[in-house]
Amino acid sequence: MRKRVLIMISPASAARTAGIARYAREHGWYLMIQDRLGYRPLAWDGDGAIVALRSDNETVRMVERLRKRRIPVVDVTVSRPEVSLPRVTSDHVQIGRCAAEHFEERNFRSLAWFSTGWGHVQKLRYAGFTERSPAVRWVVADALPRARKDSYAAFLKWMGGALRDAPKPLGVLAYDEADAARVLDVAERIGLAVPEELAILSIGNDRLICENQAVPLSSIDQNLEQGGYEAARLLDRLMNGEPAPRKPILVPPAGVAQRRSTDIMASRDPLVREALAYIEHNLSRPFGVPQISEALGTTRNVLAKRFRADLRRSIADEVMRQRLAAAKIMLRNSERTVRAIAEALGFSSPSHLTNTFRARTGMTPREFRMTQEDAPDGL
Description:
The chain is of the alpha/beta class. The chain has helices at 14-27, 58-68, 92-105, 120-129, 140-143, 152-165, 177-190, 207-210, 224-239, 270-281, 289-296, 300-311, 315-333, 338-344, 350-361, 365-374, and strands at 4-8, 30-33, 48-51, 73-75, 88-90, 110-115, 136-139, 170-174, 198-203, 218-221, 249-251, 255-257. Helix 2 links the parallel strand 3 (48-51) and strand 4. Helix 6 crosses helix 7 (177-190) and helix 14 (338-344) packs across helix 15. The relative contact order is 0.11.
């Protein structure tokens, strides 16, 4: 007999529900969606439910009504850890670690966290983010009095002051895309360069927000599609009478979708920063250390020595890193041919780009583009 499953996730997540739908198709489930969580599910009698508990108590009361009817329920969040439920959730600590590694790879030594609120999920992400390095913690809910939390003027004054006073270059991890967009807006208003002075990383990889900013936002893909699939798999086991796992099932992030907001190597050395800017602005033409040193008014040896001392890599390595990073962005966000990309980024030929790309990433540019096309939106 086909199972009937209720989905109570609000706001709806396209990627997460896609994972649930995939499992449902594979196992012949009938799905019912209850996206208005302030209402009781009417005229529904089914076998199980997948829910996203929220900070309010209405969703908890709805779940309790289902459990009294002995209907198995799986939660896809960890916002209410005090409510005992089988769970499949993102590994939020690992998300924080992923962010720290992303900034570490780019040589950032000064880090900060920003969020509007400070709940259980924020605490987990912050814990992972600060395991190896400390980070300033900026939380609107803690910094502004209740009466001024909805005042943008008050927020701009507080956040602008915090960003101005922070050591540069600074890497900021934001709780989600909305919080990241707030940081970016303040940075623009006070004249901070992103990513040169301030690199911003968000969580969730919501393309609607990430790709529609003055500076497109890098973001950690939570792997929500796989999370939805695993939640459906667990619910299936519960509906078949298996016992619930003792601990939540944690789904690791799928990695960082890199965009412009973190596409830079951080440097405290002003000469190295000038060299990095020169490289970025001249990727379309062939150049080397002689051209960079001449443009900056220094010698090749001095520039090479200070570059390696600060970034722990050669200038040639950094040129190739920037060219490949730009190639990935073009492959992901445009329909340019490999030949056009090679010409735009100073490669001697399409085969030069392809061979270098394969050596550094393990796949050809075309294979990379296919993986990006198949990736979920992560909404």
